Amino acid sequence: MNLTAKIYVAGHHGLVGSALVRQLKTLGYSNLLLRTHQELDLTNQDSVQEFFAEERPEYIFLAAAKVGGILANSTYPAEFLCHNLLIQTHVIHEAFRTGVKRLLFLGSSCIYPKHAPQPMKEEYLLTGPLEPTNRPYAVAKISGIEMCWSYNREYGTRFLAAMPTSLYGLGDRYDLQDSHVVPALIRKMHEARVSGAGEVVLWGTGTPRREFLYSDDAADACVFLMNLPDDRLDPVAANGHLRPIVNIGCGEDLTVRELSELIAEVVGFKKKIVFDPSKPDGTPRKLLDITLLTGLGWEPRTPLRDGLIKTYMDFLEPRALALETRPISAGVVS
After folding, report:
1. What DSSP string describes 63-97?
2. Which of 5, 137, 247, 287 has the fewest Cβ atoms nearer than 10 Å?
3. Among 142, 79, 74, which residue's Cα sits nearest to residue 107?
4. Rounded to 5 degrees, what angle do the CA atoms 81, 106, 297 make?
5. What number of CA atoms fall less than 13 Å from residue 152's CA on the CB side?
């Protein structure tokens, strides 16, 4: 990507999107197209068509999505399915119609079967049943992958689908109802420490294993993939026999219990951590095989502890502490 290329980052206020903007600006990209949801509703086909006709982006990072943790996915399955299908359908089709050079679609590791062999390779997609608690979201993301693959095969586009592991980082959402595991744990531990609570109760058994990647590392991987020369990208994005998927992760995991203990240490909560086994655990293990990505030349840079410290410092900013308090106990495993 030329430094003056017109690059559209869809979902630039989200966790991944904001990290992409930071990464692109750090690298010197000066022509970023950024629109809030109020400025451009990606679920509205007419609005999306008008935007592409006027702006004609050359490259697209499709990070816009409706996301949330296990409680939000279970409570709003129709919204998670419908909204994500609409967003990706409109953006991917208009990217094709207006001749976008490359598009990178951000998916999720939840696309893989609940009991997939570990670590999960790209070819494990659609080889078994999905985790029921986030199946609508996963089905939407799988549809986005199929769209990228179908447009590549039929029209010769270079649309790539990146599947990041569980992400955390600056600007995350700390709402206990809608957030993912790391921000939910950070908030729970922080509030328990401040209030002097004697314990923190978490959903599930604490035994599921999860892999976590700092969002700025994920953004770095995405920009790296978009900058691959054609002869290195085409075996992945232009291979008619293989879905254009690349896993993005760090290659290491830990239990939710171990994660909660690490976050308690970072936050300074020194009391008891209790798990409620009557609540769902979600998928037993989600570890991505990142052989394809590392083989292309990319490696993660931020150790988990370092990333958690940065994230907690970000949480302590006044804007993050101005949180709406909700009388609801949220699941923190996603």
Report:
1. -------HHHHHH-HHHHHHHHHHHHHHHHHHHHH
2. 5
3. 142
4. 155
5. 27
How do residues 43-81 score in pLDDT, each as one tens digit? 999 999 999 999 999 999 999 998 877 777 888 899 999
**Rounded Cα gap, residues 92 and 265, in angstroms:** 43
**Cβ–Cβ under 8 Å, residues 57 and 6:** yes
Token pair listed for 306: 């370092």
Instruction: Say if CB 226 and CB 128 are below 8 A apart.
Output: no
Verify whether residue 137 is a known catalytic residue: yes
Q: Give the separation between CA 261 and CA 189, rounded to whole angstroms.
A: 10
Structure tokens at 283: 């998928």
Residue 119: asked if its preceding bond is cis (omega within 30°), the reply is yes
In the block, residue with structure tokens 């670590």: 119
Tell me the pLDDT tens digit for each residue of 174-210.
Answer: 877 667 889 999 999 999 999 999 999 998 999 999 9
On whether the CB atoms of residues 185 and 260 are closer than 8 A, the answer is: yes
Do the beta carbons of residue 187 and residue 323 sit within 8 Å?
Answer: yes
Counting Cβ atoms within 10 Å, is residue 274 exposed (0-12), middle (13-18) or buried (19+)?
A: exposed
Catalytic residue chosen out of the listed positions 8, 59, 112, 137: 137
DSSP assignment, residue 29? -
For 221, residues 6+ apart whose C-beta sits below 8 A from its C-beta are 162, 164, 248, 293, 298, 300
